[in-house]
Amino acid sequence: QVQLVESGGGLVQAGGSLRLSCTATGIIFRSDSMGWYRQAPGKQRELAASITSDGRTNYADSVKTRFTVSRDNAKNTVYLQMNSLKPEDTAVYYCNLRRGRWPSQYDYWGQGTQVTVSS
């Protein structure tokens, strides 16, 4: 069983920064990828950024120049540094751990942390 605990959300003005953290506990495999998804009110959950255990990253086009995902494998922790935040970044951010590959992948989710960007 895997549990994901997030921290770091909050309220920030447009142009500001926030850093999200997520620590995974339980049985973690070296091949697991980790990342962050987000869901705004009335919208579907979407990928923000992800990172494999060997450091390969993937970003949504809307955050590519502003967000940085990183990972500390020794601590089973993934981070999301968010800079130059915009009101459209307002969403609940969910930590994700993905095991396996499509079509046999399995996703674990954190409880979500609210990020609100005021204009």
What does this structure look like?
The structure is a single chain. The chain is mainly beta. The strands form 2 sheets. Strands 2, 4, 5, 6, 9, 10 and 11 form a 7-stranded mixed sheet that branches. A 4-stranded antiparallel sheet has the order 1-3-8-7, with no helix packed on it. The protein is globular and about 40 Å long. The N and C termini lie far apart (40 Å).
Summary, kept brief:
This protein is mainly beta. The chain has strands spanning 2-7, 10-13, 18-26, 33-39, 46-51, 57-59, 67-72, 77-82, 91-99, 106-109, 113-118.
Number of distinct beta strands:
11
Q: Number of DSSP helices? A: 0
Q: Distance N terminus to C terminus?
A: 40 Å
Helix content: under 10%
Q: Pairing-aware structural class of the strands and helices?
A: mainly beta
The main sheet comes to:
7 strands, mixed
Order of helices and strands: EEEEEEEEEEE
Question: Rg, please?
Answer: 14 Å
Give the rounded overall mean pLDDT: 96
Poorly predicted segments: none
Characteristic terms for this protein:
four-stranded antiparallel sheet
Topology overview:
Layout: E1 2-7, E2 10-13, E3 18-26, E4 33-39, E5 46-51, E6 57-59, E7 67-72, E8 77-82, E9 91-99, E10 106-109, E11 113-118
